[in-house]
Amino acid sequence: MQDKNFDKLAQKFAKNIYGTPKGDIRAAVLWRDLAPALAKLGNRKLRVLDAGGGFGYFSQKLARLGHEVVLCDISAEMLAQAQEQEQIDASPEPLAIQLIHAPIQALSAEQHGYFDIILCHAVVEWLTDAKPTMAGLLTMLKPAGLFSLMFYNKEAMRFHALVSGNFDYVAADLKVKKKVRLTPTHPLYIQEVKDWFSEWQMSLICQSGVRVIHDYLKKSQPVDFDYQKLLQMELEYSQREPYISLGRYVHFLGQSPAV
Question: From the annotation, which residues make up the binding site for S-adenosyl-L-methionine?
């Protein structure tokens, strides 16, 4: 199993990623990209696979819209927290979310069926077998289905190190003797992932940078600094170059061939 298991880091992960400005940016950019594409699939119940979805933020969001969701993660602790969130949800009807505790490499169409949408966010950068694992997920995608892939951008990782003055780290090709636990082990180049999409005959219908500004902000901000304006600027610039290529993460939304 090649997945990074966040069982021991679940609380720290939640604190660092969710409920923070960078978490708000991530959610806003991804939903801005997904919402119009979902609308084009028609007003019907969709089957959604959230592969490596952790706490299930988008699983819950899509389930509240009436879709049938399968949430898979290798971390039992994260799935437990997803279940807790589901139980305290204020929706009058139970959310249609099936939880699967397994590595995403273990998923198959034979066992789990086919999906209209597959989400895989902030997962591939933790895998040594990223490309074949993603290809395996796509065997479960229906014709004209959507594949939402968000990955950690290696070039942005390099640029952030450069502007921070970490030149030895850059010279070492972003490798350190002691890894920071929440620093992805296998960041990817944008062109590398574009080549995957071409090989898979996936139409790239949308691409965005995630956190194209936030991670480069100066440490000291004006007293009247407005995070809502930051969010607006992130949304405005996230689909423009050169900002896409500076996103700490990059989101690709692809569509499989119709036949």
Answer: 26, 52-53, 73, 121
